[in-house]
Amino acid sequence: MLVSEFDIISHYFDRQSNNRSDVNIGIGDDCALMTVPNHYQLAISTDTFVSGIHFLPEISPDDFACKSLLSSLSDLAAIGADPAWISLAITLPYIDNKWLKSFSDSFFNKLNYYKIQLIGGDTTRGPMSVTYTVYGFVPYGQALLRSGACVGDWIYVTGTLGDSAAGLAILQDKLKVKNNLHKKILINRHLRPKPRFLQGKILRNFASSAIDISDGLVSDLKHILKASCCGAYIKIDNLPQSEALKQSTTTEQNHLLSLSGGEDYELCFTVSEINLKILEPILLNTGLNFTRIGQIKKQSYGIRYYFNNKEINLDIKGFDHFISYL
Amino acid sequence: MLVSEFDIISHYFDRQSNNRSDVNIGIGDDCALMTVPNHYQLAISTDTFVSGIHFLPEISPDDFACKSLLSSLSDLAAIGADPAWISLAITLPYIDNKWLKSFSDSFFNKLNYYKIQLIGGDTTRGPMSVTYTVYGFVPYGQALLRSGACVGDWIYVTGTLGDSAAGLAILQDKLKVKNNLHKKILINRHLRPKPRFLQGKILRNFASSAIDISDGLVSDLKHILKASCCGAYIKIDNLPQSEALKQSTTTEQNHLLSLSGGEDYELCFTVSEINLKILEPILLNTGLNFTRIGQIKKQSYGIRYYFNNKEINLDIKGFDHFISYL
Asked: Which reaction is this enzyme known to catalyze (chains A, B) (predicted)?
């Protein structure tokens, strides 16, 4: 039986997932020692996941590992970075070897896929939570920021919106879906987000701003608008939706899910008319659809919604763990 | 009243603590964007602190901020790095504005002192805990590793040992100290560790290995011995002790505290005879004492303890949150 912190680390987490040449010292000393290649900036993002807050308490260790890791990595994709390393701080109420084996197997499986190396972390006792810090490289000055949108730029999103929130609703028994394939697709979109690394990398050279959709389209687009001092309109008719979502919900439901449902981890980005012509054929080659959903306007315009070419009133809020509690 | 995650970040944590030129984008985008200077390695370390496990639940937010932050930074000192940045993941059960103000004031006060910039993090709801990832720079190839000790090297420690554990015992009402000054000194050593940045920086060029004493001298020295494939002896008579500790405990108590008491955050390092002559006068100038406590031997020698030039039997274990629980 494993009983100490050092046992847990050596047994489950001290695996040579990838032997990257930029990791000079990995797990096992007071610090990891890393080399960042010349002419690159280091992108860093931190995310915490608490059992029962960010996840249904009954989630499997496999799903927990995949969903938390993939959604953390999405921040790197959103800024146009290539993923490189990760630190893992894991807090557990007790040692459950079966749980740890399943969690760590899934965790390293994904790290191997993305060629990411675990460089360190901490293992502590306490209420269950996981904090990742993820690291990636982006060529100097080419990062996709929230602050670059300009009046007249078109607003795009990758993939489809609202699936993850529908998947969560199914898991919570708030949405009934008879078609088993649709049900599986929607739940899978919730539990296995796909960081859009390829799209982020392509957008580096063409998009004026970008963000990943974690809190919901409107909530995240507002971050772009605030950082870029702009307004915008969204054409609700244009929101890209999967067949699974459309067949499983009413029009009102799926519009709301696409506007405010979180955790799709698609990219929302803005692009000027002039860059669009070069970008479109390149993006088409990635095999993932991308859809124009609106346009950037002056700040005084605020945010407006159109449906059938008519403006409609909506009050959309994103998800906030504190607000939902108070 | 502050109600959202974004409110907490903008009100308490989005302060320009230091405007470092190597922080290209700090808080407020999907990732922070950083520049690591040429010819330097980036040192990274992660530590989690859980209320009630790493800290007495009644600890003040000021003490919580200082102790957790300073002990995290100690890992950078131990590897010989200059501190640069920090990420903060904070999980809180509810929004307590008074607590947040005191915590964040102390946190930024220390960051300012060490010229460290907060570059991002996460704010979530859940059982209280804090995870820091700290970052520092070390000239390429000069980091102090655990793995460099050689047979014949002398073993040294900075400062005095056992004070922090005695301070904790006082706070837990397990140790009674009548002398108020001594009591204050010992508690302060527990709540306000000092990362030994200056000493770490000096040792870069001379020490063969180093570690910071977080789990207790013996426990941490064993990490050096394991990584360096060596054995060692310790002369218990030589362990450096403060007057406050000596006056407050029996000889047996203070020897045990100095050998196994954690959280002094002094450096334990090894140095060859030849480097010692250059190192000694430089270290003397730092104003902090350093003491020879033993010597590195072959791995087959194991670890042995001497008192009055006689070998004695001791079974010393360091502190482990999981062992203490099971």
From this structure: thiamine phosphate + ATP = thiamine diphosphate + ADP
Q: Which residue out of A5, A119, A131 would a mutagenesis test of the B interface target, given it has the greatest number of B Cβ atoms within 10 Å? A: A131
Both B106 and B11 in a single domain?
A: yes
- B215–chain A nearest CA distance, Å: 12
| Partner residue opposite B75 with nearest CB, options A30, A47, A119 | A30
Rounded to the nearest angstrom, the minimum Cα separation between B131 and chain A is 7
Indicate if B159 and B301 belong to the same structural domain. Answer: yes
Domain closes at, from A97, A115, A139: A139
Rounded to 10 degrees, what is the CA torsion of B116, B120, B124, B130? -30
Average pLDDT over residues B241-267: 94
Chain A residues with beta carbon closer than 8 angstroms to that of B132: none
Orientation of helix B251-260 relative to helix B163-171, angle to 10°: 110
Residue A324 confidence class, pLDDT cut points 50, 70, 90: very low
Is B209 among the domain residues?
yes
Q: Do A135 and A229 have their domain in common?
A: no
Buried b / exposed e along A274-300 (16+ C-beta atoms within 10 A): ebeeebeeebeeeebebbebbbbbeee
Range of the domain at B100: 5-139
Complex prediction ipTM: 0.89
- Token readout for B80 is 């010989």
Q: Do B25 and A81 touch (CB under 8 A)?
A: no
Among A112, A139, A166, the domain-final residue is: A139
CB neighbour list of residue B10: distance below 8 Å, 6 or more residues apart: none
pLDDT in tens, B126-168: 888 999 999 999 999 999 999 999 999 999 999 999 999 999 9
Query: pLDDT tens digits for B305-316?
Result: 999 999 998 877
Residue B73, domain CATH: 3.30.1330.10
B93 in A contact zone (CB under 8 Å): no
Same domain, B159 and B108: no
Decide if B78 touches A, using CB distance below 8 A. yes
Q: B120 vs A50: CB contact, 8 Å cut-off?
A: no
Q: Which two tokens stand for residue A8?
A: 């847990």
Q: What is the DSSP letter of B55?
A: B
Q: Do A91 and B48 touch (CB under 8 A)?
A: yes
- Interface contact B287, partner A, CB < 8 A: no
A316 is a domain residue: no
Please provide residue A284's backbone torsions phi and psi, each rounded to the nearest 5 degrees. -60, -35
Segment A42-52 mean pLDDT: 92
- Enumerate the β-bridge partners of residue A294: A155, A234
